[in-house]
Amino acid sequence: MNKILTFQPDITFNKEDFVKINNKDFSENECFEDNSKIPKFSHALHILFKNKAAAVSICIILIIALFAFLGPLISKYTYFEQLRGFENLSPSFFHPFGTDGLGRDIMVRAMYATRISILIGVVSSVIVLVIGTIYGAVSGYFAGAVDNVMMRVADLVYSIPDVIVVILLSIVLKQPLYELFNNSQSAFLKNFALLGPGVIAIFAAFALLYWVTNARIIRGHVLVLREQDYITAAKALGCGRARIIRKHIIPNCTSQMIVTTCLMIPSAIFLESFLSFLGLGVSAPMTSLGSMINEAMDGMYSYTYRLIIPCVILCVLILCLNVLGDKLRDAFDYGQKATINEK
Amino acid sequence: MAIYIVKRIFQAIIIILFVTCITFVLMNLIPGGPFLSEKVPNAEVIKNLELKYGLDKPVIVQLKNYLTDLSHGDMGVSYKIQKNRKVTDIISETFPISLRVGMIALIWSTLAGISLGCVSAYYKGSRTDRIVNFLTSLGTAVPSFVFATVLLIVFCVKIKLFPSIGLYSVGSYILPCFALGFFPMCYITRLERASMADELSKDYIKTAKAKGLEENKIIFKHALKNAIIPVLSYLGPLAAGILTGGIAVESIFNIPGLGKYFILSITSRDYPLIMGTTIFFAAFIVAMTLIIDIVCAIIDPRINFAEGSKKAA
Amino acid sequence: MNNAEFLIEAIDLSKKFKIKTGFFKTDYVKAVDNASFGIKKGKTLAIIGESGSGKTTLGRTLLRIVEPDCGKIIYNGKDITSIKMKPYRKKMQIIFQNPASALDPKMTAKQIIAEAIGVHKLVKDKKEENEKIANLLNQTGLDIKYAQKYPHEFSKGQQQRITIARALAVEPEFIVCDEPTSALDMSIQSQIINLLMKLQQDKGTAYMFISHDLALVRYISDETAVMYMGSIIEKSTSAEIYSNPAHPYTIDLLNSYSACDKAFNFMQFKSQPHDSAINKSAEQKGCAYAVKCKYAKDICRHIKPTMSQIAINHYSACHLI
Ligand SMILES: Nc1ncnc2c1ncn2[C@@H]1O[C@H](COP(=O)(O)OP(=O)(O)O)[C@@H](O)[C@H]1O
Ligand code: SF4
Ligand SMILES: [Mg+2]
Questions:
Q1: Per-residue model confidence (pLDDT) at position A294
Q2: Strand (E) or helix (H) holding C223
Q3: B137, B251 contact by CB (below 8 A)
Q4: Domain residue limits, chain C
Q5: Residue B203: which pLDDT band, with cuts at 50, 70 and 90?
Q6: A46, A52, A74, B258: which could form a disulfide with B95 (CB 3.0–4.6 Å)?
Q7: Is the dihedral of CA A297, A299, A304, A308 positive or negative?
Q8: Which chain A residues are Cβ-neighbours of B145 within 8 angstroms?
Q9: Measured from the CA of C57, which atom of ligand 1 is nearest?
Q10: B247 at A interface, C-beta within 8 A
Q11: Cis peptide before A285, with omega less than 30 degrees from 0?
Q12: What's the DSSP call for residue B38?
């Protein structure tokens, strides 16, 4: 069969020759080029887990998450329960981190604080992910004038001083949200009331300001994707734009989405703790790492350890998330390089 | 190039105007108005106060008035913190303090970051490099307010080396500036280390080495010039970060800078002061970013004119 | 020419692309310049030409994946240049040069084919869909057990079979085959060609077969059109083109081809694609081939030759004829 197409001008053969060969089962002649080729995604994860720093970070994050999410279930205290006569206890067997000035168990409060900080980080990142991905994908896919306008808007949003605006939002939203939450009947909103309006301000700020980086990364990737033949094929099949973006463009951005989200979580936690520290974030009696630090500032001369506990949790959490994000990015970069080299 | 600069300036003006309007409108949307929290039993009194400050007019008219005043450099008067004192006076009194602390932090963090990054890249893989790498990744995980608190406890409370409050001596500058510059220092070190290592592995450095040029000379003449560019483009967000980080650090060390007044104005709902400081901060950050971006664009022709500089983490 | 015979016909199709030549300067590349041709039902038109001559663009413009700047596309006697394409999408399909990039890496073979079926709602229920997919895989010589695999798990030849199955899923009457074999190994090339030929025999599909492989095209096409720098410069039945080439470019092409060994690579013949892009925009008047043509006369550099009939069903654009 090989012979036929190794062309020699003087050999004459005709259409029938081609067709005749067809009767054989040709699929058996073909073998898989390389069965061991690992797909890009698990390839990247493979690289990630081989990295010691990344593995340690993942373990520590898991431990902190267990502490934050399972801890309160085991402990017999709650974050708001004030134990009369047990104020300002030093660390002991029953209260490993002691109690605060109102007689609340600090360990349980630390668990709740960590939980809230992690939740805020994750939720904000998801908000950013959704907005950034859609914006970036649309901008990149339509390209041309649409892209130009959308990217200029992104530039504008990008240069708005973010922390200032967040602070502003948290002040402004405080009163109306407070009323909204307290007057509403739905349990969902009541839970928000527990967190306080500052948290909503953080979410709003992320939704309004922080999607730009994400959108830019996604757009850059989409500009490459849209030239791929499978997009052309989808067009030739008659798929609409929305369907192409939904079914072909966005699923092929997953690695970019994962990496940017992982890098966004620590900065969201960072921002939340900053605002709560200034007294603008999570409001009492609910607590977060930032507001625990804020509360502990008053007694920092006599009860220094109360300050140290949330500080350490916060720093370790951010550190591990940073390391994980960095290594994840490296792993995906490497994965991408590897597949490019293969081609 | 000229087009780029004009475009950026235009963009900066739009942003400042935008932030001003948003600030103003948002502040006016707050139900109850600024005097509600005060214990004024009499509706008559509130009415008089509102008349006095022009708060009875529709928002759009107020905005117009505010913008006209602003263009004359008038930001109104403080309602509460320093009653009836001009906001501009407060800003011009307190901002130099913040600026001084911020500048010192900016300069030391940049210089230390670049040097550390270079050393680390030069001895890549050595123990020095690993220690620097470890410490800086630790450092980029510590928010400046946490670091400031820790410094305060260790050096003022436990060791009593420095005064903990105010800015009365040279010594009292050390801790706030150190705390403020620590995070950016770590970040710059990592940036510089990465770009320097990248630069050092390039062919032209190897060629220069092979030609027998002295190694140190190569690094300083060639590699550093290229490797410093990512750091330069980080300076804009860095300035913004130091300024906002200063808000917390000033509160911790009790420095009477603009950041502290910003927080004070928020907690006591002194609206003209909130607005004044917000707009001032925003304008300052936008201006700083603008200047640094333009300088970068002049220095480095490779900068992509369409994209801005990288956002701080 | 009797227009009514054609399944699909292009009349004076042109497409320009903007290219950035400097910070502010933009220039245009005439990727396709006044191309006219028609393809009959169940027949194959081969388009040959060197890389960068606009073959791909021509194929895509014909399917309106790339919108033409001017000209008309007639399908079955109906002008489809500016109407909604959706109903026509299932009548015309395309097969790509590089099957690896033509398949969405995040979809299984089954999902890829199912999408084609789903977009046009060709089946009533899941069961029918599964049957249809199995049938398509079978037709294209793939085992049904591969249906749940992702594109990277297939070999290049198998990937190309999937793209063919996807194209066939909508039961098209016309398929643009854009160099469907040039990214494949020799042995697999022949299998894919065989497959395409068999499908044409069974279903009576018309092909526009883009290639730079003269040997291949000679035996599978009924008609051949030669492209040079965006224009079709010669067009006739395949036998005529090979036995009686008229245009100097075609003659050079055939000579260089037979002069070369069997491992002929078209790349050797092509001019630098970037050169040609610049030439194309700069040189607006005259024959595009004048720079290299042995027979170039003065008139060739000033006046662009137009297509003229030189024999029955044989057209060429050259002042010489
Ligand atoms: N999307 C595009 N934008 C700009 N130029 C293009 C684009 N597509 C093709 N071209 C140009 O049009 C010319 C023809 O390209 P193409 O149709 O791919 O040729 P072929 O398939 O014969 O190799 C080339 O010079 C190419 O650079
Ligand atoms: S028109 Fe002139 S230059 Fe062009 S191919 Fe014919 S003879 Fe050659
Ligand atoms: Mg092509």
A1: 85
A2: strand C223-228
A3: no
A4: 6-91+172-316
A5: confident
A6: B258
A7: negative
A8: 274, 277, 293
A9: 17
A10: yes
A11: yes
A12: S
Band the pLDDT of C4: cuts 50, 70, 90.
Answer: low
Protein residues near ligand 3, an ion, with CB under 5 A: C 56
CA distances to B1, B238, B286, C54 from B9, rounded to whole Å, are: 12, 20, 10, 44
Q: Which residue of C has its CA nearest to A11?
A: C215
CA torsion sign for C224, C225, C226, C227 is: negative
pTM more than 0.90? no
Distance CA C162, CA C160 (A): 5
Which atom from ligand 1 is nearest to the alpha carbon of C19? 4
For the stretch C87-109, pLDDT in tens is 889 899 999 988 888 999 889 99
Q: What is the mean pLDDT of each run of 10 residues along chain A (343 residues)?
A: 32 40 40 44 74 87 88 73 68 70 77 89 92 93 87 82 78 73 71 72 82 89 89 91 91 87 88 84 79 81 80 91 86 57 38
DSSP code per residue over B111-137: HHHHHHHHHHHHTTTSHHHHHHHHHHH
- Contact flag C119-A237 (C-beta cutoff 8 Å): yes
ipTM of the complex: 0.85
Q: What does chain B come to in residues?
A: 313
CB contact under 8 A, B266 and A163: no
Using alpha carbons, list the distances in angstroms from residue C236 to A276, C233, C247, C249, C308: 79, 10, 11, 15, 12
Q: What mean pLDDT do residues C178-188 have?
A: 86
DSSP state letter for B156: I
Helix A187-195 vs helix A197-209: crossing angle, to nearest 10 = 90
Mutate to test the pocket of ligand 2, among C253, C291, C297, C308 (most ligand atoms within 8 A of CB): C297
Residue C59: band (very low, low, confident or very high) from pLDDT cuts 50, 70, 90: very high
Share of chain B above pLDDT 70, in %: 79
- Whether residue C56 has its Cβ less than 6 Å from ligand 1: yes
Query: Which of A265, A264, A263, A288 shows the shortest CA–CA distance to A277?
Result: A288
Which chains, if any, share at least 3 CB pairs under 8 A with chain A? B, C
Contact C227/C297 with Cβ under 8 angstroms? no
Pick C6-91+172-316's CATH classification: 3.90.1150.10, 3.30.70.240, 3.40.50.300, 3.40.50.1970: 3.40.50.300
Written in H, E and C, the secondary structure of chain A is CHHHHCCCCCCCCCHHHHHHHCCCCHHHCCCCCCCCCCCHHHHHHHHHHHCHHHHHHHHHHHHHHHHHHCHHHHCCCCCCCCCCCCCCCCCCCCCCCCECCCCCEHHHHHHHHHHHHHHHHHHHHHHHHHHHHHHHHHHHHHCHHHHHHHHHHHHHHHCCCHHHHHHHHHHHHHHHHHHHHHHCCCHHHHHHHHHCHHHHHHHHHHHHHCHHHHHHHHHHHHHHHCCCHHHHHHHHHCCCHHHHHHHHHHHHHHHHHHHHHHHHHHHHHHHHHHHHHCCCCCCCCCCCHHHHHHHHHHCCCCCHHHHHHHHHHHHHHHHHHHHHHHHHHHHHHHHHHHHHHHC
Sheet holding C314-316, edge to edge: C92-95, C174-178, C206-211, C44-48, C223-228, C231-237, C314-316, C308-311
The pair phi, psi for residue C140, each rounded to 5°, is -90, 10
Which ligand approaches the C-alpha of residue C98 most closely? 3
Distance CA A153, CA A147 (A): 10
> Rounded to whole angstroms, what are the CA distances from C67 to C62, C81, C172?
9, 9, 20
Ligand 1 contact, C54 CB (< 6 A): yes
Q: List the single best residue of B25, B149, B260, B280 to mutate versus A (max A Cβ within 10 A).
A: B149
Q: Contact, C90 vs A238, CB < 8 A? A: yes
CA A58 to chain centre: 15
